[in-house]
Amino acid sequence: MIRQRAISLKLDETDAAVTNFPGAAIVANLADRLGLLQDLDDFLPPKERARGLDNSAAVFDLMSIPLSGAECIEDLDQLRKDQGLERLLGRKVMPTSTAHDFLRRIRYDGLDGFARVRRRMLRRVAKSAGVTTATIDVDASLYTSTGRNARMSYKGERGYMPMLAFWEELGMIVHDDFRNGNASPGSDALPFFQETLAQLPGEVEAVRLRSDSAWYQVGVMDFCQDKGYGFCIGADQDEAVKQATMAIEEKNWQRIHLIADPADPEPYVREWASETVHTLNDSQHAYRLIVLRKERLQDDLFYGPYAYHAIITNMDLSLEEQIAWYRQRGQCENQIKELKWDFETRVLPSGDFFVNAVYLRIMTLAYNLFVALKTTLPEPYRKCRLKSLLFRLLGIPAVVTYHARRLYLKLPRGHPHLPAFRAAFA
Fold it and tell me: Which among 8, 166, 190, 327 is most buried, taking Cβ atoms within 10 Å?
């Protein structure tokens, strides 16, 4: 047997310009092809003095924090010491103090500019992919913070409660609204949805909406019905819904055959569904109410042998198709987790509300750029999360050299993921 023993060696240093983030070349070239860098310079507030970094360079450095594997804005000082990265970029990464100054400078006027940049990026990606349907998944999530402006949320923790809208067909973030922690997830739902629609390209022909029960609101549903948008929203278990559920006769319940969850510890729990017509107060429309019931593991004295859940929709898919389609919105929650944990937005950089709002919007640009990057890679890489691609592609140690007035990036010969790196770079 071969045993691992202590490693005996002598440490030495090299003058070679080695970088741990050769993926910067891939990311920068893709951002340029998508017009992102030029748009940042065109639409963000200009600097008062023409010196230092342009807006595109400053934002690229901030996006490089998660894309390089760094964790917070203070890690820019570490990236600044990367000699190979300095050669790749043709400049030094900005220091942490400059990054904070940049965020404070554009905190009021930068949000609209970033929205325009993101909107143009979405249009180019959608046009390239030929996507003309937009399924919008919306959800709010708590970002805990001890900042001076953070407020107590309904979860009993201080922080912020931004609302996020995702475009399922592209996997990208369409819109975000940075809110304080005391904001309800369902507050200003219709204005937020209307703002989200304004971010979509004019080529979009069909819009569909999915949400949890926070958006169980007459205004949202009637707006979708009047505009011809399909929707499927979780229904509140209010008195009207409970009465509609109890009115369903036993013979109208049918067993549904959806893909079983392999992680379900109780695969024998059975699920049924039925549907009825439901009209909300203050609405002139009647909608399709789908009620699901699942057998409890143990009969309950007060609630009976079943647990109930309902969704409301104006779509006409079959019962099983409608339920399966609605449950796909769970991907939205996974995307929020990815934004929090992979793109390190769990800890926001400031106690200032608007600085944090700008920073989160920059991270949404980084998230969308990463999603666009995966579409350029071979199929096995397209489902990878950021950490996996950092290990396989973006973070391969490499040497940056000059030869014959040309910049060279030298990767390890025979690296198993070198072909994918070449494909992304090309």
Answer: 166
